[in-house]
Specification:
It contains 10 helices and 8 strands. By secondary structure, the chain is an alpha+beta fold. The chain folds into 2 domains: about 60 residues, Winged helix-like DNA-binding domain superfamily/Winged helix DNA-binding domain (Arc Repressor Mutant, subunit A, Orthogonal Bundle); about 170 residues, GAF domain (Beta-Lactamase). A 6-stranded antiparallel β-sheet has the order 5-4-3-8-7-6. A two-stranded antiparallel ribbon has the order 1-2. A hairpin with a 5-residue loop joins strand 7 and strand 8. The two termini are about 40 Å apart. The relative contact order is 0.10.
């Protein structure tokens, strides 16, 4: 059988419509011409697809500006991801409590191919909180949340997710070497949390811990974003412990069971070989 025949059958019109939905979601307000140019299709084709999405409440058009934005239908479909995975309300409660405790922005992220996607967030009150948006994607290897989830995966799984090195460099601090990253993942597994030292965005640091399911696999990660300029002595240890507790709390809600306060120790089936 040819490689072409092995590929799943795809509907071209649906592919195009979904690509426009993604563009609108990422754009924060785009004109028809901007959307058609970015999508590489004619304005008339883009308009037909956008009108279909509008009819189903996935996008909306501002009558005054003509800008297309994401609409409530997309939110309803997207929010069902957390509901069907049993994390929706539990995650919100845990994130809000952690954000209030630390006065920092807290996030819930999941792994999608080689990226992490922020699917829930609790914004901090006051000037210490960073700002972001739901649905934002970042490469897993450059984020604390991504590294926290990869640390609870088999080495072969990490290779599958990340692809061949060198990995993309987002800032001068990004780890692009495979062996260096695997060494860090071993340390993350030992200590139970991961750090992002301005590896995705200069000026922003993150600390994350994995959310485990009943089998002990990392289903998600809870992270805290902090402005580098606000760092104080001893802060990392305090934040890491709070994030670990929050991740463990959500893990228990998902069915993970433990008698210990710390995250699980490496067992005979170690994720990484020495």
């Amino acid at each position: 059988m040819s490689a072409q025949k092995d590929k799943p059958a795809l509907t071209r019109t649906l592919e195009r419509g979904l690509s426009l939905l993604t563009l609108v979601a990422q754009g924060g307000g785009l004109t028809l011409i901007e959307i058609s140019r970015r999508a590489g299709m004619s304005p008339s084709t883009a308009l037909r697809l956008l009108e279909t999405l509008r009819a189903h409440h996935f996008v909306e058009k501002d009558a005054a500006t003509g800008l297309y934005r994401i609409a409530i239908g997309a939110f309803e479909v997207g929010s069902s991801y957390l509901k069907q995975n049993g994390m929706s309300e539990s995650a919100r409660i845990v994130l809000r409590r952690l954000s209030g405790e630390l006065r920092q922005t807290t996030n819930l992220a999941v792994l999608d191919k080689s990226d992490i996607v922020y699917v829930e967030r609790a914004e901090a009150e006051g000037p210490l909180g960073t700002r972001g948006r739901w649905g934002e994607r970042l490469p897993a290897h450059s984020t604390a949340a991504g590294k926290a989830m990869l640390a609870w995966s088999w080495e072969s799984r990490c290779d599958e997710v990340l692809g061949p090195p060198p990995f993309a460099r987002l800032t001068p601090n990004t780890i692009t070497d495979r062996e260096a990253l695997l060494r860090q993942l071993r340390s993350i597994r030992d200590q139970g949390y991961a750090l992002d030292e301005e590896e995705s965005i200069l000026g922003v640091r993150c600390i994350a811990a994995p959310v485990l399911d009943r089998e002990g696999a990392a289903r998600a990660a809870i992270s805290v974003s902090m402005l580098s300029g606000t760092r104080r002595p001893g802060q990392d240890g305090e934040v890491a412990e709070a994030v670990r507790r929050a991740a463990q709390r959500l893990s228990v809600m998902l069915g993970w069971q433990t008698q210990a306060v710390a995250m699980p120790e490496i067992d005979a089936h170690s994720v990484f070989t020495d």
